[in-house]
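[09:14] KT: can someone run the structure on this one? pasting the chain below
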Amino acid sequence: MTDPLASRPGRAVPSSRIARLSRMGGLATGLAGDVALGAGRALARGERPRLDRLVLTPGSVGRIAERLSEMRGAAMKLGQLLSMETGDMLPPELATILGRLQAEAHTMPPKQLKSVLEASYGKDFRRRFKGFDTQPLAAASIGQVHRATAADGTALALKLQYPGVRAAIDSDLDNAAALIRWSGLLPPGLDLGPLMAEARRQLHDEADYDREGRCMARFGDLLRGDRRFAVPAWRPDLSAPGALAMSFELSQPIDALAGAPPGVRDAAVTALIELCLRELFEFRLMQTDPNFANYRWRPETGQIVLLDFGATREIADEVAEGHLRLLRAGLSRDRDAVLAALEELGFVRPGLPERHRSVLLDLAAMGFGALDGPLDFATDDLAQRMRRRGMEIGSERDLWHIPPAETLFLQRKIGGLYLLAARLGARVDFPALLAPYA
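[09:31] RB: done, structure tokens below
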């Protein structure tokens, strides 16, 4: 299979605040030029210019996606969060931009890669390693991952942070949000504040590699007796503020499970959903990034390798207990208790008109009804049925509502697991999974 990173040319990450501001300012200037030119053409045709149509031209769409991908860091993460949290509210052109950011990131060119290694390990960094592969295994918004061999012969995965990204988080977010607001890309009734706060918190956490290493070690301890999972071992002796070293865990992309026998696929997805339940109700600690790349498959042992603990967060007792009340109310078909739990958790605003409450409770009933027996994700049409029902009120802007950050992450995690289960065509026995919590 062709390596997608090999086909993307290395491009230096702008590392100073001035350079990053200049890139964002250059993007704004270019878009303003597109708007002015498009407005002039519209007026010449006797039409009234519309800002959203002038910004979302094919050329502008490509320019926005390319520049955010080039900058990485906070600008790219904000785009990813917008893509995941605002979904169907977005115009299709903006959804295209943000969808591209889920997978695209340039890699550092060799000269910048060397400077990052020197900043983390000193000029003699080569003495720390017997080998180092300059072609990254993966690249994302905060850093890129390389395979290496420690001086003691241990196979390592080394995550290297893009230079300047951590220091520029706050200014990047402010600049990116201002650009998005100016451009008219978002619906006017959508409050960007909660997403900004969540992006800021998450970026600072993900850029703290020492914190990620400690979270990785905690998950390793929590899952030590569970043979279904493998967690890389953190190497603090080979880590630094801009470098996170861990054991290299040989494995395949989780998509490789699609070709496995049904029972194997079912067991793997069941294990991941059970892990999510344990994270919420038992560990009170959750890895909240549902990116498929964070799950890997080891066919020779049947294990799932868990990666990337930068988005790990503690779960407050009231959040866990609120979701437990919601689960029990939904399984018992207590509509009043379901509504109370949804309001308590911040998923819906109190005081909605009866018609709106009825639709929302019907949606909840559909979701909980699917948990009454084994669910075959290969044939189930739950998502389509809920979408059709939700469209009855989806266009009413006074209902657009972004839940609090403490519930956003769980909504994102559950949605990601649903998509993964559907992609793998798994069958999950939910009554058995939920029995300890019902």
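[09:33] KT: thanks! The chain has 16 helices and 13 strands.
[09:34] RB: yep, looked fine to me
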